[in-house]
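Write out the 3D structure for:
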Amino acid sequence: MPVNKRSLDKERKKKFDKKKLERRARRTPIKPVLTPDTIIDYKNVELLHRAVTPNGRILSRRFTGATTKQQRELTRAIKKAVFLALVPVGSSRKRF
């Protein structure tokens, strides 16, 4: 019995769409770390911890809710705090 090529393409597309929807559903919403009036300082360790992943990577603007200027300030503050050993880098220990 010959197989119709179009029907195979539709089945593949359906499977792909289901996988795509499953991926979207798994994401959990993240509260913005910053508000427009937040003052960014390297000594504010609690704020810096919220903007860094447990592996030590800085979260992007999409997750932090920062403006471009705030994101640059945040990055500088995190790097300065890491240099001064206020924030651990890539540590699996509990946060302060």
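The chain has four helices and no strands.
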